[in-house]
Fold:
Amino acid sequence: MARAGLAPPTVSTGELATDAAPATRWRPPGYWPFVVPALIVVVGVIVFPWAFTLWMSLHEWKVGSAPAFVGLSNYARLPTDPRFLDAVWQTLLYTALSVVLPLILGTLAACVFHARFPLRGFLRGVFILPMMATPVAIALVWTMMFHPQLGVLNYLLSLVGIPAQLWVFHPATVIPSLVLVETWQWTPLVMLIVLGGLAALPTEPYESAQIDGASLWQVFRHITLPLVAPFLFVAAMIRMIDAVKSFDIIFAITQGGPGTASETINIYLYSVAFAYYDVGYGSAIAVVFFLLIIALAAALLVVRKRTQGAVG
Amino acid sequence: MNLRWLLRQAALLFAVLVIVSPVILFFVWMLSLSVKYEIDNAAYPPILIPERFAWKNYIDVLESNRFSTYFVNSLLVTGTATGLALLVGVPAGYGIARMKAAKAAVVILVARITPGLSYLIPLFLLFQWLGLLGTLWPQIIIHLVVTVPIVIWIMIGYFETTPLELEEAAVIDGASRWQVFRHVALPIAKPGIAVAMILAVIFSWNNFVFGIVLAGRETRTLPVAVYNMISFDQLSWGPLAAAALIVTLPVLVLTVFAQRQIVAGLTAGAVKGG
Structure:
């Protein structure tokens, strides 16, 4: 049986030893029975939706009417849809900020958490609460904090002499305000990944640097940074994938508003599919959205290759 | 020398304080909002600790007639979706690890990258066609999109590190593959299963986007119910903050008590659903 070849040889030998019975006896089909139930589920809830989305994207289909094949015209509509183009730009801005800020702050936090201090374990647990807490619940409290008259944020600003802001209620500040929430939420994940990297660092370079009298900054720039670069890359990749798809926080706080100032691709996709029930066009957006994420991931890989010489 | 050490310690503690305070202040403020009467929540300058505590905010939320329905919905959706995911995902992780077919996990990675809404549109149409809308089944099934990849991913990683010697010995003693899995591999894998279960439970409990489309009035889960409170029923902040805290409290408690498993799971797989 071809499948048996996939099993580790040691186990196959053992299996033969038990197969003392006649040669016609039924042979266990390797490890496939372990995988088949999951395979059925994965095909049903993951692979089928992918295929169905591709099929729908080639059809003009509003919920309630019959689908009609239209070829690529849903895709052709995208570059002429100003709301979609705005959403792409807003997604890229939101994503760039939501990758860079947590990356910087998370690395700093990891350097601090790498040291030994009392209650370190407990405080690390507290620090990761934002990313585990229910996003909608978090969003609700942030909405109250952003309130221009009654919100605590404007009060805190007034204490240091900064004038009151409109936060998520003004088109110019809505994306930075949402990024503030996203950064608060996801800096801990970057911290955990970089902390894992720091824990794996060799001690020798530090000892020789200390002997040579290197400054803290020199040690960070020339020893720590190159060594944790692979971890920073992983963190940047995960952060990018999550930020570009961010939905709960934006939807619960602004629903893409004011107007469409914070409407990212994901939020626009939601409106097209479930407010206008235009599932054909929505599917085309979903496909392009997926390709955009793949493209961004590829771009990150290229950046990583280019900088390997410079930083690493 | 001693003074320098002391200064460094003080600087370190200050740095820790600066880093952790946005988190602590946020949750303290959330708690404060939830125990204040409307008049205190509207006060300027803001009041952190009120003179009178509005415990009635919590009672209002807990006693509102639908809260228990939504709570049970959340339990059923998260419980069933996690249970089913463990049932199919743990053996799958074992099979994939033993077949050394880790490349099969590329499906899981692509699933991790795909936006949640790309599952929602086709499955919504499917559920509508099957006439399942209005029951909890659509949400239970679509939550598998969150839970199954987490479980498979973590279990592949875990079974790849468990020793093969015991399993080989059992095979030589005449145990079938199923018996080896059931009596040798599974008991060793308990810590890995715990990690997978905790993460699956949290990400399923927190999920919002699937619910807003698939849930009807009777089938809302807690995150959807809280969101609907903002938009329709409730305009006063106290009960809203209390509801938000109640919804997320189980997750916060779980995070503090199981942080070692959570950290291990997130840094090993870094998988999140939706």
Notes: Chain B has a mean pLDDT of 90. The radius of gyration of chain B is 23 Å. Chain B touches chain A through 102 residues (CB under 8 Å). Chain B has one domain: 64-268.
